[in-house]
Design brief:
Elements lengths: L1 H22 L1 H4 L2 H10 L3 E8 L5 E7 L2 E7 L5 E3 L1
Antiparallel strand pairs: 1-2, 2-3, 3-4
């Protein structure tokens, strides 16, 4: 019974930390993850990704044939300028 309770406690403690790491998957994977996230939102020809001081990734990408500067925020949103 005590092993079962110990396993239950360990699983419940690991749950929130697992959710936190998967939420920011693009940010944790670096520029390749940020580019993959932007690609999943319809951007292509992504290059020159560099890390900004605020933790976002900034680079150049094309969407619907229009090249622009994109910023991939740590929360996962992509801003096109």
């Amino acid at each position: 019974m005590s092993r079962f309770l110990l396993a239950l406690v360990l699983i419940s403690a690991a749950g929130p930390s697992f959710a936190q790491t998967t939420r920011n998957q693009a940010n944790a994977a670096g520029s390749a993850g940020a580019a993959a996230h932007a690609r999943s939102l319809g951007y292509g020809n992504i290059h020159d990704m560099r890390r900004a001081p605020d933790g976002s990734w900034v680079g150049t990408a094309t969407r619907n044939g229009v090249p622009s500067t994109v910023t991939v925020q740590p929360q996962g949103s992509v801003i096109r300028r």
